[in-house]
Amino acid sequence: MISRKPIAVLLLVVLPAGFAAVWGLQKSLDRQLAAVRQERDELVLRSGRLVNVLSLEYGTFLADVYWTRTVQYYGEKRVRQEANFDLLAPLLDLTTTLDPHLVVAYRFGAVFLAEPAPRGAGRPEQAVELIQRGIANNPEQWRLWQDLGFIYYWELRDYPKASQAFLEGSKRPGADEWMKVLAAKVAEEGRSRGVSMFLWAQIHDSTKDPLIRKNALNHLQLLKAEEDRERLDELVQQFVQRFQRMPQTLEELVSAGLLRGKAVDPQGYPYVLGADGKSRLHPKSPLAGEHVGNSAAR
Amino acid sequence: MKHAGIVAWNTFREAVRDRVLYNLVFFALLMIAAAVLVGQISIGIEEVVIVSLGLTAISVIGLLMAVFIGVGLVYKEMDKRTLYALLAKPVHRWEFLLGKFGGLLLTLTVNTAAMAAGLFGAMLLVQPALKAADLCVLIAVYFILLKLAIVVALALLFSCFTTPLLAILFTTGLYVTGVFAQQIRGFGNITGSRTLDAVAVWFSYLLPNFENFNVIAAAAHRRAIPGALVLQNTAYAVIYCAIVLAAASVIFSRRNLK
Amino acid sequence: MTGPAIEIEGLTKDYPVGFWLAKKKRSLDNLTMQVERGEVFGFLGPNGAGKTTTLKLLVGLIFPTAGTARILGQPVSDVGMHREIGYLPEQPYFYDYLTAYEVLDYFARFHDLTAAERRARVEGLLKKVGLETAGKIQLRKYSKGMLQRVGLAQAIVHNPQVVILDEPMSGLDPVGRREVRDIILELKRDGRTVLFSTHILSDAEMLCDRVGVIAGGTLRGVGAPGEIVGLKAKGMEILFELAGGSGGAAIAAQATQTGNRYRIQVPEEELFGALEQLRGAGARILAVAQVKATLEDYFLELVGAEGAQGAAVEVSGR
After folding, report:
1. Best label site of A20, A112, B41, C23, fewest CB within 10 Å?
2. Chain B neighbors of C138, CB-CB under 8 A
3. Number of helices (H) and strands (E), helices first, in chain B?
4. In a shared domain, residues C146 and C260
5. Cβ contacts (< 8 Å) between A7 and chain B: which residues?
């Protein structure tokens, strides 16, 4: 025969009032804390080996934690449009030391460590180092050779080394046939749009990581747009030859029968014609303003 | 209230005689070793490393004490039946709970204060004198204490209706979840279902948000901590403890002591 | 104030049992009784009879399923009423790291005593329970009997009107039992009410104004020890010696032999005839005494139906 009144008071008064107060306080606390933690780019322990020792037998799990943190770090930086990715290398280093078989981390590093700002840290030499460690730890992963060759090809523009990497990779069991072809083609021609597009397509198709895929797709679209614009510029030249004047708009190419329908970029925005007679991306297209990175090859 | 004070004092006295404070020796050794070693290996950032290491140690040691002593506070008295004689005195059960809470909090305060003194001693080994900016280290210690108060309240709540082992599991589980409360809120879409996600966000506001009290990074770099944060964190801890202790009192007051 | 010290009406307690705590086990069933002021009341019963349950209900450690109980006119759910009661739990245990002095001082602090009063009370009590010298030793070094004494001391440290003692004699040696008996009698002299439980009948017989017998959760009888027992006279006992062996006397064959002494029980009306027979057989009569039925007999009779084996009754305390 105990009174039930305290339960009622607890459920109807104490808990609702208390949690309402907690809720309200949390809102203002969030604001205060945001000020204190404006820049939390801190990594106290940078030595992967030390962390590995400290993590006892849970290194693999900790690697996953660090991997998540790496992706978050990269994502936040991109959203905030900050150009410095100083912690990317140490984070990847920690992650792969804790779990040397986390292949996705190496591949992530191959792309985003190597790419220049704002896409990445612009440190291709660190990317090469990371991938080489990955290859040493995971000799069966021929895709890592593809990534190594890719860094040499795309960022470092060292075509003999790139070709060599593709050739090495092609010798690994299970490697796709095209690796051999790619090795020969890069050795012979150096940079070409075809190879670039092929490589980005391979990166896109061979991973499930959404950030890597999105980045590769973006590159592919830029390359495609570049190709489109070259083609449009040729058509403009043909127009000039035929009519002895510059077209005012690209629509004139259509009415002249040179172009079948309206020309749009991979994002669906129509190309426009500049005053100098060169085609351009539509200013509102997401692709506009992005650097294609392939131009030096031409 | 007077009765709660008597219980609290006794709890503190028992903890002291139980050699609980011996952990301080371990902390002192750690700080001395760190002060010496840090000078050797990390040139230029000794002051940063010593503070982050010291605060982390204070937090971890405090948490271990709060959880492991906290879950035994009530259970031990029920198990050993020391509680029977006590409750036959004119003592309300909520007074007993409040006293137990206060007693462990007092123990933790003394313990934390001693560790903080040790930390400042170690800081003096690597820097010539204390600066005004070092006040933020003291605030960080205070925040750790606030966090420990909530942990003790939770441990006490669970120990009112379950075994110590389960109480440890529940308390640490809630602590870890509480540390990630911010993240849960930030995810936005966890499950893909809009209702479930709204529930998750709601839930994250009800969890004790232990990240509120983590200013170790700011303290390590001697970044100023706004006074409003100190006030709000204090209010947060007080209110949260009050809720948990109220719930614990209601549960415990209905419990049959077999 | 008048009225009984303790009034219990229809007190019932069910404990949930089983893994899911879905089943109920009734450990006290509809108990109604009263303890008068200034009375020493013995609560008798085998282990598991419901004695401890009743006492815990009175002190508010557990809550009744049904029924009410009042002490000095106050409901037992009123914690303020605890100012007037003292309680010794069964097999008491106190904080290991405190000395007996500190434990008593700790408990005394919950009552409105000045520091000087407290000190005087605690020191006096330690002397009374024979722990004068051990008072400064931590309790983890105490024997069970010493803890029992500390428990008794804490129960009366605030001079309560009503003292409730759960098995106060258990764990004590004969000297300790004697001391506890003296304390209970002293409390009675001071006009206090004492309710204590025991499964040791001799203690109850010696101390109590009234006893209540409980078994299987129900009250089986209440009354003065003599009143309950006096109902049945059990006859006479004759102690005699036979010089030359049993000598073929028919009556000696029914007697219990110890060395060359014999003991025999006969109904009162047959005493004379029996003595004649013995004398005829050449026996030397040593003593003739009336055999009183004891509480034990009463007890066994009451409980017997449910199985006397289950009822672990100690006739004396070892």
Report:
1. B41
2. 17
3. 11, 0
4. no
5. 250, 254
Question: How many residues does the structure list for chain B?
Answer: 258
List the C210-215 sheet strands across, edge first.
C85-88, C162-166, C193-198, C40-44, C210-215, C218-223
Q: Nearest-CA distance from A3 to chain C in Å? A: 10
Domain range for C46 is 6-229
By three-state DSSP, how is residue A46 classified? Answer: coil
Cβ pair A19:B243 closer than 8 A: yes
What's the complex ipTM?
Answer: 0.86
C74, C100: one domain: yes
State the first-to-last Cα distance of chain B, in angstroms, to the nearest integer: 27
Strand blocks (E) in chain A: 272-273, 279-280
Q: Which residues of B touch C107 (CB under 8 A)?
A: 85-86, 89
Tell me which chains share at least 3 CB pairs under 8 Å with chain B.
A, C
CATH number at residue C146: 3.40.50.300
Q: What is the pTM of this model?
A: 0.70
Tell me the two tokens of residue B150. Answer: 């909530």
Query: Does the distance separating the beta carbons of B212 and A28 come in below 8 Å?
Result: no
User: How far apart, in whole angstroms, are the C-alpha atoms of residue C116 and residue C111?
Assistant: 13
Asked if residue C309 belongs to a domain, the reply is no
**pLDDT tens track for A273-287:** 887 878 888 888 888
Residues of chain C with Cβ-Cβ distance to B86 below 8 Å are 107, 110
Residue numbers in B near A28 (CB within 8 A) = 228, 232
B19 vs C: CB within 8 A: no
pLDDT tens, N- to C-terminus, chain B (258 residues):
789 999 999 999 988 888 878 888 888 888 778 777 766 655 556 777 788 888 988 999 999 999 999 998 898 888 888 899 999 999 999 999 999 999 999 999 999 999 999 999 888 887 788 888 889 999 999 999 999 999 999 999 999 988 899 999 999 999 988 888 877 776 555 556 777 777 878 888 889 999 899 888 788 878 888 899 999 999 999 999 999 999 999 999 988 887
Q: Verify that C119 and C239 share a domain, yes or no.
A: no
Q: Which of C229, C262, C279 marks a domain boundary?
A: C229
The alpha-carbon gap from A1 to the nearest alpha carbon of chain C, in Å, equals 6
Q: b/e per residue, B125-151, with b = 16+ CB within 10 A? A: ebeeeeeeebebbebbbbbbbbbbbbb
Domains of chain A: 48-214 (1.25.40.10), 227-297 (no CATH)
Q: Do B85 and C83 touch (CB under 8 A)?
A: no
The token pair that represents C27 in the structure block: 């450990």
Cβ of residue A16 closer than 8 Å to a chain B Cβ = no
Is there a contact between C83 and B90 (Cβ–Cβ < 8 Å)? yes
Residue C311 resides in a domain = no
The predicted-structure confidence for A216-272, as pLDDT tens digits, reads as follows 898 899 888 888 888 888 888 888 888 888 888 888 888 888 888 888 888 888 888
User: What's the CA gap between C73 and C193, in Å, rounded?
Assistant: 14
Question: Do C280 and C204 share a structural domain?
Answer: no
Are C174 and C252 within one domain?
no
Give domain status of residue C313, yes or no. Answer: no
Q: Tens of pLDDT along C245-297?
A: 555 566 667 778 777 788 888 887 888 888 888 888 788 888 888 776 666 66
Q: Answer whether residue C316 is part of any domain.
A: no
Residues C275 and C239 in one domain: yes
The pLDDT assigned to C306 comes to 53
Q: For the segment B55-96, what is each residue's pLDDT rounded down to a tens digit? A: 988 999 999 999 999 998 898 888 888 899 999 999 999 999
Inter-chain residue contact B253 with A6, CB threshold 8 Å: yes
Q: Is C68 near chain A, with CB under 8 Å?
A: yes
C106 to chain B, closest Cα gap in Å = 8
Same domain membership, residue C273 and residue C152: no
Q: CA dist A160 to A136, A168, A184, Å?
A: 21, 12, 10
Please count the residue pairs, one from chain A and one from chain C, whose beta carbons lie less than 8 angstroms apart. Answer: 10
Contact C221, C42 (CB under 8 A): no
The count of structural domains within chain C is 2
Contact B163, B74 (CB under 8 A): no
